[in-house]
Design a protein that fits this description.
The chain is built from six helices and eight strands. It is α+β, with helices and mostly antiparallel strands.
Length: about 190
């Protein structure tokens, strides 16, 4: 079974990296999430089907509140990514679709446009993967990305995931079908 620490514990003592702080998403994060999605919509909408439904600030608040509920019910653990230097909101990284009996979950992530191209997502994902394997007791973490999303595939490659196949037309997004490259990392895989 997966071990999920209390959300409030990590709100007071976030995951830290050299440049980042990762806090469990809270309802109070809604306005910053809205601003980030709104200002990065054209970049995010190309790869993330939920962006088209994220139409107002209330949607961000509902999402943030759902994140807290998902954590409490063991379904998903999602984190706000903040830059340590000035605590600015950079994006979201999460462990989705937690399946306790199989000790597995899926990695998901996005960055606001201003935070891309600096290695922040690789750093955030690496910290979340360490958390998943060492703190939660995960055995398998899966990740998928569109086969033409070079930036996301580069993150996945830097993290050491192993390619498992192509999921054809896996997602309808921004008016087109996306094929997904599917990858996984096991607790037993060398890092």
């Amino acid at each position: 079974m997966l071990i999920l620490p209390p959300r409030q514990e990590l709100r007071s003592r976030p995951i830290e990296t050299e440049r980042l702080l990762l806090f469990p998403i809270d309802g109070s994060d809604g306005p910053e999430i809205w601003h980030a999605v709104s200002s990065s919509r054209s970049a995010l909408q190309r790869w993330l089907p939920w962006v088209q439904f994220h139409t107002d600030a209330a949607a961000s608040t509902r999402f943030a509140e759902a994140c807290a509920s998902d954590w409490e019910h063991g379904r998903a653990l999602r984190f706000v990514i903040r830059e340590r230097a000035h605590r600015s909101f950079a994006g979201v990284v999460g462990l989705e679709s937690c399946v306790h009996i199989h000790r597995s979950c899926e990695l998901g992530y996005w960055l606001r446009r201003e935070s891309t191209g600096r290695g922040l997502m690789t750093e955030a994902c690496r910290a979340v993967l360490t958390f998943a394997f060492q703190q939660m007791g995960a055995h398998r973490v899966r990740v998928a990305a569109a086969t033409d999303n070079a930036a996301s595939l580069a993150v996945i490659g830097r993290l050491g995931f192993r390619f498992e196949g192509i999921a054809r037309q896996a997602e309808w997004c921004d008016g087109r079908w996306l094929d997904h490259g599917v990858f996984a990392l096991l607790a037993t895989d060398p890092r």
